[in-house]
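Bumping my old thread because nobody answered last time. Still need a sequence for this structure:
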């Protein structure tokens, strides 16, 4: 740890007069915060300037930087290291490699869907997690990242036919890849059992891999086999995996999708309560009634509105609704979906009551699930965190600001085991956001999704001022790869 007394060599910053919301859920209080080097040195009233650069935060909230619990930013960290969609929301750490989809470890010239969500079919060039971590260090992103290892990535890497059953030799190869990744500092293992590259995996295969992550001290996050009719059975599988592998389970982007399942979050949240008596379970969610993923005709039911977010075959249809495209082409929506391949879409598949019920649940972390490479992305990419703080906390009163901040900071830091992150206290890493509680608001919409939020004043990453709303991203990028071992890799 850095010395807590400023020296001439140390960067030294004083945030003056803000309301501290510390990430634990406790009520806010007035104080100054002194940052020395990459850590918080001191929190208290009327701290002396002592040569520090001073930032006035009167009337503002000062909180830990937000941790985006669910992202697909693996490639974005390398190709757009300024990470504007995230840092402009106050996000200082992203969890990558969700839904069974990670960039490493895989070398593939033409990666299949859904791996192609990570910016194209030719981006998988990292044979090991260590080689990917080195690429992140070289790119020097503006925010921190912790990595999950994706099951689809392992299957495509190790199997002759990732759509089929695993041989003993293929499972052994996957285990070896995962062991290397965990040794390189990965935070855990993720599955996306819904997806074709993952769905042939049995629970025994998932348990074998999750056990390796568990032994290395990691967690298991899952995009379950079903979020529709069979969601309770899918939850049984996730919880059984957690118990058999002795590993904490995180249910990804929790929802009950499809009109027939609206209202069933009453059942799913009760089921999570039951499971939590036996084992460690958490979940993440984003604050919208639409999901987003690849275009898939299995999701086309002529009831759910679907907006095209990208299409390689018909880029001119981006931003339009599938129903209107089908009418124009004089075909069914399923046929239109097939003609738009490969592509992505927003699926308006949830009801507002379910979204609010899941967001209100005390063990729900906030995760954007944003898709940074989509031409016309779901607005969650740019708006998730300000939308929870502005729309759901302040405007609808769903929960207090302190509780909203806890679900974005202290809770995910604990669930993903990010040491010395997610809380404001002396000795913790200085990842902070300063925002205006009256003004904070998402501006990104489904029609115009590429918009920064209002009300985020200042973002500090590892003690460095990294984003100011007045000027946009600063030249300084001080993010780190957060190794599970706690020995954060410095640039
Ligand atoms: Zn997913």
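Sorry it took so long. Here it is:
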């Amino acid at each position: 740890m850095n010395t807590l007394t400023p020296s001439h060599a140390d960067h030294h910053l004083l945030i003056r007069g803000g309301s501290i919301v510390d990430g634990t859920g406790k009520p806010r209080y007035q104080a100054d915060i002194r940052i020395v080097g990459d850590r918080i040195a001191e929190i208290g009233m009327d701290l002396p300037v002592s040569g520090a650069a001073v930032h006035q935060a009167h009337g503002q909230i000062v909180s830990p930087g937000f941790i985006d619990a669910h992202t697909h930013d693996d490639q974005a960290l390398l190709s757009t290291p300024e990470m504007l969609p995230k840092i402009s929301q106050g996000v200082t750490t992203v969890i990558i490699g969700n839904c069974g989809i990670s960039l490493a470890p895989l070398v593939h010239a033409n990666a299949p869907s859904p791996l192609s969500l990570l910016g194209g079919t030719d981006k998988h060039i990292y044979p090991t997690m260590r080689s990917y971590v080195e690429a992140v260090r070289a790119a020097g992103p503006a925010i921190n990242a912790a990595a999950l290892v994706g099951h689809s990535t392992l299957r495509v890497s190790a199997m002759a036919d990732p759509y089929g059953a695993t041989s003993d030799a293929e499972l052994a190869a996957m285990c070896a890849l995962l062991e290397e990744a965990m040794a390189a500092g990965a935070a855990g293992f993720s599955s996306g059992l819904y997806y074709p590259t993952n769905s042939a995996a049995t629970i025994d295969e998932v348990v074998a891999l999750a056990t390796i992550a568990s032994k290395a001290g990691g967690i298991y996050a899952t995009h379950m086999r079903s979020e529709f009719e069979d969601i309770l059975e899918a939850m049984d599988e996730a919880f059984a995996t957690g118990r058999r592998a002795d590993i904490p389970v995180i249910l990804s982007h929790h929802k009950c999708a499809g009109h027939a399942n609206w209202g069933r979050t009453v059942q799913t949240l009760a089921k999570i309560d039951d499971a939590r008596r036996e084992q460690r379970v958490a979940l993440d969610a984003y604050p919208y009634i639409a999901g987003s993923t690849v275009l898939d005709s299995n999701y086309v039911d002529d009831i759910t509105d679907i907006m095209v977010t990208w299409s390689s075959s018909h880029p001119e249809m981006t931003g339009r609704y599938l129903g209107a495209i089908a009418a124009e082409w004089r075909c069914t929506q399923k046929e239109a979906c097939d003609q738009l391949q490969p592509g992505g879409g927003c699926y308006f598949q949830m009801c507002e009551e379910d979204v609010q019920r899941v967001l209100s649940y005390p063990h729900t972390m906030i995760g954007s699930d944003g898709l940074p490479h989509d031409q016309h992305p779901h607005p969650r990419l740019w708006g998730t965190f300000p939308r929870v703080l502005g729309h759901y906390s302040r405007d609808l009163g769903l929960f207090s600001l302190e509780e909203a901040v806890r679900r974005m900071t202290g809770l995910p830091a604990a669930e993903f085991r990010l040491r010395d992150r997610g809380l404001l206290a002396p000795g913790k890493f200085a990842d902070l956001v300063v925002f205006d509680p009256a003004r904070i608001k998402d501006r990104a919409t489904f029609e115009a999704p590429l918009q920064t939020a209002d009300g985020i004043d200042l973002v500090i990453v590892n003690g460095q001022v990294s984003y100011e709303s007045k000027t946009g991203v600063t030249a300084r990028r001080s993010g780190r790869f957060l190794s599970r071992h706690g020995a954060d890799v410095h640039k």
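The chain is about 30% helix and 20% strand. Let me know if any region looks off to you.
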